[in-house]
Amino acid sequence: MKRLAILLLILSACVPDVDVDESLLGEPRLLGVRAEPAEAGPGESVRFVALYAGADGAIDAPIDWAFCTARKPLAELGPVSPACLELSHPALVPIGEGTEAGGAVPREACRLFGPEPPPAEDGAPAGRPVDPDVTGGYAQPLRLRVPGNDVDSVALFELRLACGLFGATQAEAAEYARRYRRNVAPEITRLELVHEDGRTVALAEPAEVALGEVVTLRAGWPSCPESDACGDGLCGIDETRSDCPDDCTAPSSCAGAERFLRFDVASRALVADRESIRAAWYTSGGTLEAARTGVGADDPRTLTENTLTVPESAGELAVIVVLRDARGGVAWREATLRVVQR
Asked: In order of start, what are the domains of the chain with their CATH numbers?
């Protein structure tokens, strides 16, 4: 009988530091989950895609997916209710099997995990709403059962919920609803390699590197405007359909570090923030200088770099970069490096 390993891995966040080299691809494992769209409301359909990869890169896997509808008890110290980590439980709503799955966000999501008053349980008084995260958002947990040769594991993914506000007046809530723009996942528009001699190669196709060469890996994303302007094709937080109909009639957002609106409870004000962008790097050989890189919310750069020391043996290397924005949007790209003698 297979055993089950409980991995408290919140896949919308960065992987915590551990003693092993998490950037080295070996046995297949789950590296990320992408939600399309990246933010959704109760009853809306969402498609999920998992990145399951090993030494040879991304592969298919019979991952079992389920929404978890169990609220975390007040005394529970973990990130979710223990019911979310079970293989089978009435609180788990199956949505498919494979590296892709899809389903409608539970109708009660904003009551269970958001700012709305939660339902009473077993005749007890209703609990308090969930506190928002540092970006002012809420999350619907998903349980993923990931297969293994001898041990299956459970991982968690958090889908950002499109809910209202907690602790706001009617006027504040109305302004937030008018100005808030849902998150759009980042897009990796550049993935390239810089050789020691300064040559830059786009990694759309396999690229050759020399034995023991030290190369720079670079991932980039679109530049998002620092302020809103009618006619730029984006409906920002300071634009409306009446003021900027060309931008906001069919709103579109930027697939980079977006500006977003957050309600600051302490000052009771709506605050404009910008997303940070973080990258997790993986390779099947050689040594990466850092497992994770990125830019902060106040950093205008639209790229992040890492250094790879190529191994001293010929062959092929898989390189994967997983990009995450501050509101849980995820993107990834994979490349192949051919290590040759020169």
From this structure: 3-166 (2.60.40.10), 190-224+275-340 (2.60.40.10)
